[in-house]
Design brief:
Number of helices: 10
Radius of gyration: 23 Å
CATH topology of the largest domain: Spore Coat Polysaccharide Biosynthesis Protein SpsA, Chain A
CATH superfamily of the largest domain: Spore Coat Polysaccharide Biosynthesis Protein SpsA, Chain A
Strand order of the largest sheet: 3-2-1-4-6-5-7
Shape: elongated
CATH class of the largest domain: Alpha Beta
Structural class: alpha/beta
Number of domains: 2
Helix content: 40-55%
């Protein structure tokens, strides 16, 4: 099996049948052997029933809603393909652009459909949060990221399995693998695509998920590059202690406890980052 297409489904009765049909048409025209794995994440509508009636696909049913990332992991775990192609079932991604991604899989470890095309339908409330998160991720990874969490992408199964223990169960799954691939020097290609208004109601909470993404980014940095997380805060605290010590010696003619305390704390934080970095690099 060359490619396993994994499609998470949650209350997508309006679009899931059309999405699967479009995937079949596109993949049938390619030269790759493929399978389609649809994961019904405890849908409360007719999505599960519709999936059972579609021939030629593998259907996994979650007894209750466990999350976007958890559903993807279930599908990936069962997948037989060397490559994993993921897309949403809500009609928002241009399925017909999948061949544009497949064109580059021999040269890259992951190919992402970046939502930077001419037609982009993104809810206004999500744009500021998405921009902030992207900038933070770019600062951490030192890489240009056109789209941090696009749900249309293809990647090597063997690589994503290396990060299995840190992959979240919610919507930050795609953000996590983007950061993980970049920090570990895997090659990513971004292909501009359009992004359309989804069919049905979104289950994403912009405010709640924004803070979740922030936590995710810091978790990823601490896991992959702990020295980056600890070093500069430690240096700043150490320098603050030195500045206060100089002020106390010159102005007050007395060295207070606070300056010594801050300097020692700064040194300890830097050493903590160094030790964590050594541990990570030995894995």
């Amino acid at each position: 099996m060359d490619i396993s297409v994994v499609v998470p489904v949650y209350n997508e009765e309006e679009s899931v049948l059309e999405t699967i049909d479009r995937i079949k048409k596109v993949m049938n025209k390619s030269s790759y052997k493929y399978e389609i794995i649809a994961v019904d994440d405890g849908s409360e509508d007719r999505s599960g029933e519709i999936l059972e009636k579609i021939k030629g696909i593998i259907v996994i049913h979650n007894t209750h809603n466990i999350g976007y990332g958890a559903s993807l992991k279930k599908g990936i775990k069962q997948a037989k393909g060397y490559w994993i192609l993921i897309t949403d079932a809500d009609g928002s991604y241009p399925i017909e652009d999948i061949p544009k991604l497949l064109k580059y899989i021999d040269k890259y470890d992951m190919v992402v459909g970046a939502r930077i095309g001419k037609h982009i339908k993104t809810p206004v409330l999500r744009k500021p949060a998405r921009w902030i998160l992207k900038k933070i991720a770019e600062l951490i990874t030192k890489a240009k990221i056109p789209d941090l969490n696009s749900g249309l992408r293809i990647f090597k199964k063997e690589i994503v399995e290396k990060f299995w223990t840190i992959l979240p169960n919610k919507f930050s799954f795609t953000s996590t693998i983007t950061i993980a691939f970049l920090i570990n020097d895997y090659f990513i290609k971004y292909i501009p695509i359009n992004y359309y208004a989804r069919k049905g109601k979104s289950t994403i909470s912009p405010i709640k998920d924004f803070f979740g993404f922030i936590i995710l980014i810091f978790r990823s940095v601490m896991y992959f590059e702990p020295l980056k997380f600890f070093f500069w805060p430690g240096v700043l605290i150490f320098l603050l202690g030195i500045i206060i010590a100089i002020y106390q010696l010159i102005v007050l003619n007395n060295l207070g406890d606070i300056s010594v305390f801050l300097a020692l704390i700064g040194v300890q934080i830097c050493f903590l980052g160094l030790i964590a970095d050594l541990i990570v690099k030995r894995k």
